[in-house]
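Same chain as my last thread, 44 residues:
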Amino acid sequence: MLAAASPKGPKGVTRAPHRTFNARDDERRQAMARRLNRPAGATR
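reply #2:
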């Protein structure tokens, strides 16, 4: 569910250590989970 709702990353080749990509993925997943799980009355 989260994978289908997440925005795609930038196009092209990006070079970085594996842990950097893992951290980016974790941040992206947390941001999406916050958006999906926010309270019904919240505007942002």
